[in-house]
Inverse folding.
């Protein structure tokens, strides 16, 4: 799976390339060769998006005038919809920018508010980076809450982390964004090694 990077100068440029009526495809003028049906890992950034978005996609057509056209995998629909909501001004996230690529995942996890109380034993981490993650849950905690998070990574025991809730999404696909505390020791080494492998190979193996 190859990595394609799309850095837009404005959100409007992304929206101009996005074709909702055509099944939610994105056209991009690029010198990168491709083949129809090829699977890609696409990194998207634009001003206002708090973190670079990484989504899986498939090439649907190739044209001389428009370049590649690809459709984002439905498994990453949450990331796609959140990114588009930011670009359209429907969602505003007030959170510190983290210079970490977030990789799409479907990792099982459990979380709880530090000190006990609210928690969820059947949750999914939908994207993951060295600086934080998005945690899918029907009843997210409040912004600023301190949270303990245990993630079932592909190898070894669950990865134990903690951090604070940076933002919350209610309604469709609810959940919360967590900014990790400084990751040290074995958990930090394992997470960085996992993400380094994904970044260097553009292979997404972060699935439950």
């Amino acid at each position: 799976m190859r990595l394609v990077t799309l850095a837009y100068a404005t959100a409007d440029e992304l929206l101009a390339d996005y074709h909702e009526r055509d099944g939610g495809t994105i056209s991009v003028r690029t010198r990168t060769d491709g083949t129809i049906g090829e699977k890609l890992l696409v990194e998207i950034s634009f001003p206002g998006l708090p973190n670079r978005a990484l989504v899986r996609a498939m090439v649907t057509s190739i044209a001389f005038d428009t370049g590649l056209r690809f459709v984002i995998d439905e498994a990453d629909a949450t990331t796609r919809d959140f990114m588009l909501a930011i670009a359209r001004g429907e969602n505003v996230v007030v959170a510190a920018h983290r210079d970490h690529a977030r990789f799409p995942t479907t990792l099982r996890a459990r979380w709880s508010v530090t000190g006990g109380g609210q928690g969820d034993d059947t949750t999914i981490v939908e994207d993951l980076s060295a600086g934080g993650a998005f945690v899918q849950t029907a009843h997210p905690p409040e912004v600023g809450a301190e949270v303990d998070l245990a993630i079932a990574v592909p190898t070894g025991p669950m990865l134990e982390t903690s951090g604070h809730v940076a933002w919350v999404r209610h309604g469709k696909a609810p959940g919360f964004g967590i900014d990790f505390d400084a990751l040290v020791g074995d958990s930090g080494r394992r997470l960085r090694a996992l993400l380094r492998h994904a970044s260097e190979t553009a292979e997404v193996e972060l699935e439950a």
Notes: Confidence is low (pLDDT under 50) at residues 94-98. The two ends are 19 Å apart (CA to CA). The longest helix spans residues 185-201. The first strand starts at residue 2 and ends at 7.
